Amino acid sequence: MELKTLFSPKKIGNVQIKNRIVRSATFMHIAEKYGFIGDRYLKVYDELAKGGTGLIITGAVAVDPTGTGGPYQVCLYEDSHMAGHKKLVDTVHEYDGTKIASQIQHIGRVGVHPKYQTIAPSPVPYKITGITPRELTTEEVKEYIEKFVKTGIRAYECGYDLVQLHGAHGYFLTNFLSPYTNLRSDEYGGTTEKRTNILRDIYNGIKDEVGKQFPVIIKFQSQDFIPNGINEDEGIKIAKNLSKIGFDAVEPSGGGAESILYTKGNITSKVVKKEEDENYFLPFAKKIKPILKDCALILVGGIRNPVVADKILTDGDADFISLCRPLIYEPDLPNRWKSGDTTPPKCISCNSCFTTMEKGPVYCVTKKNLEKN
């Protein structure tokens, strides 16, 4: 079957993406020490670009030393990091029409840093570590907004085609979005709109400096799956505010490590064994698609069947589909589908790749075991 829509071009903002396949941001634990980009990082992205993905979103890039998830997370909080990022962009751009976005992030209240105190909008204990973060003052919030803005500007200067804010999975920006972790009474807490003000200020700060032509997109938390957190209704309100702010695209996701305490697993890495397990954020996407104005919708979450993906796109329920785990196993999956082999990914969603994340580098355990045998 010909996948006409899946392999048709579409724009995010004014940037043309050659097909509708996005590599969702995937932390690979392969930076060099102190967050610099080296050859092993470049090799992974060279394979992804060669494999036919239209838009590649990098794994989370730290905006500040306090916000790293470890010594092997890529950073872009100072100019010394930029040379490696420029090499990365050049590597991806060698493949005709392939675009790349930098996902910028601060780890927030989930972090355990040997040198820096954990910070958050409010001092709500993180149940995984037992650590109570320090609450930021209003002035400090503005300082961190500036850190995000400066990192976004560096991404632009390095040649990235887009930048994505990481506002999901329990990290810093999610902490502001969620009523569970944001108990503030200043301009950055309270109503849904006030809890999105930090995203508004980062978005405006980047656009004001580099121009409206540079797309700023966001992965955001549609649901926390935690009592008193973001529920579906709240997620819809957040999506409406993000569209109102002007984001060029949204990628709704949900859950995080803490949500495992309240669910049977982490929804961000749901095991996909049956057809009904696939496309698990599609019901939410269908609810927000009509309210997004001039804002593309990137659907992530258990997408395994390219024929179904093509129909989702053709029906207008999403503008792009986003993959993570399948591209760890098969970085050339888009080219395989385009060639006419529309069998599902070889990835079996066993989630063993997540167990490799702690020590790194991230790899497909199933594939490696097959190669051994």
What does this structure look like?
This protein is of the alpha/beta class and about 375 residues long. It has helices spanning about 40-50, 80-95, 140-160, 170-175, 190-195, 195-210, 230-245, 280-290, 305-315, 325-330, 335-340, 350-355, 365-370; strands spanning about 10, 15, 20-25, 55, 60, 100-105, 120, 135, 160-165, 215-225, 250-255, 295-300, 320-325. The chain has a single domain (about 10-370), classed as Alpha-Beta Barrel (TIM Barrel), CATH 3.20.20.70. The two termini are about 35 Å apart. The mean pLDDT is about 95.
What proportion of the residues form beta strands (DSSP E)?
Answer: 5-15%
CATH class reads Alpha Beta
Cα-atom radius of gyration: 19 Å
3D shape = globular
Helix content: 25-40%
What is the topology, as strand order, of the major beta sheet? 3-4-6-9-10-11-12-13
Please tell me the total number of domains.
1
Counting DSSP E segments of at least 2 residues, the number of strands comes to 13
**Rounded average pLDDT:** 94
Helix and strand composition category: alpha/beta
In the CATH classification, which architecture applies? Alpha-Beta Barrel
Distance between the termini: 33 Å
Please give the oligomerization state of what you see: single chain
The parts where pLDDT drops under 50 for at least 5 residues are none
Q: How many DSSP helices? A: 13
SSE sequence, one letter per element: EEEHEEHEEEHEHHHEHEHEHEHHHH
CATH superfamily: Aldolase class I
According to CATH, the fold-level topology is TIM Barrel
Could you describe the largest sheet, including whether it forms a barrel? 8 strands, parallel, barrel
